[in-house]
Write a structure and sequence with these properties.
single chain; alpha+beta; Rossmann fold; two-stranded parallel ribbon; two-stranded antiparallel sheet; 2 helices; 31% helix; glycosyltransferase activity; PRTase-like; Phosphoribosyltransferase
């Protein structure tokens, strides 16, 4: 299991990135030094909002990009809010 890495200076802030493309480029710059020590990989993006982020991340890290389709699990009283997701294999 991996670890969660945070940037305390960004916690609780809004409007940190111009858009999702900007966020993907920033993530690629942030991950690039560590990624150079890893072997191979793939970027998986969740449509639709994750695709611009994933595309820029894949470009920046020179990795292939693929899509993973999930279905959001909704709260019964609030169809806009989700509490999880199901992947293609039902997990």
């Amino acid at each position: 299991m991996g670890e969660i890495v945070t940037l305390p200076e960004l916690e609780g802030r809004t409007g940190v990135f111009e858009d999702r493309v900007d966020a993907g480029r920033a993530l690629a710059r942030w991950l690039a030094p560590a990624w150079k020590r890893a072997a191979g990989g793939i970027v998986l993006a969740v449509p639709a909002g994750g695709v611009p982020v994933g595309l820029e991340l894949a470009r920046g890290l020179e990795l292939p990009l693929d899509l993973i389709f999930v279905r959001k699990l909704h709260y019964p009283d609030n169809p806009e809010a989700g509490f999880g997701a199901l992947g293609e294999g039902g997990e």
